Hints:
With 302 residues, the protein is α+β, with helices and mostly antiparallel strands. The protein is built from 5 helices and 18 strands.
Amino acid sequence: MSKFPRPSAAIPADVPRDVRLQIVSTCPEIPGGDGWLHEIKHDGHRLAAIVGPDTLKLVSRNGYDRTGLFREPFRAGLPPMVLDGEIAVPDDRGVTHIDSLNDAITERRYDRLAYFAFDLLHFGGHDLRRCPVEDRKTLLRDVIGGARSERIVYVDHLRGMGRQLFEAVRQVGAEGIVSKRRGSLYTGGQSRDWLKTKCHETGLFAITGFSELGEGRLETIYVAEERDGVLHPAGQVRFGFAGKGLWHELNRLRSGPPRKGFIPVRPGLAATVKYFGRYKAGWIRDGLLLWSGPCEAKAKAP
């Protein structure tokens, strides 16, 4: 670590074979005050990069080895280190979307992949996980800058300006932000020191069907939205407490036999749904039912 200042809490250690990633907790409100660092949340797959003297191992959040699939951004080579970040595909504005990543994988366009590094767990023969997050990120910025790789990107942060960053992220259609408590260590596992706030929208949709786990047990509902007088499928919706008693109403509106688990219903019910963006095909993402009730059917099914 001779080229870079070593954080005082760094511990001499070999590069680990595996790491336990720190898991972000969901938070509906952005934490305020100067005690938080706020980053853009990139929309891809979480990935730890374990770089040895002559080895590379890329590990997913669930512990799967993804080296063969995602090694392209690392071909330029890095010194031994352990990074935490997100593999994604940026557009010409730098905004990432999971659909773009899935397309790149399907089309084998691995040259489009970029690795967005937001933490440094090991470097220069030292374990950095007991160092404060701001010290780890200062070193990460210098290390990534020194690597001069166009496909490995340092994720910068703002201190105490979460609402401003969130609004900027929302306006460009990105996924949300991650807020990290100043002074926090990298402990691995679920943590309230890392909080994510995702951008969401609310819309009114027609309920077109449902699936069930058995009589009286609702699994999910299917919704559609009207465009030019025609109902277009918009995806599935989780129901939570707002779905209490909904199975009986949907069962009364059954209009045909199940098709691969989908049970169609006659028009007559609407749903207010909170969702977190859309997939490329237009389907809503991570839909959650807020309210359901009768509606006047005007549009026709396609």
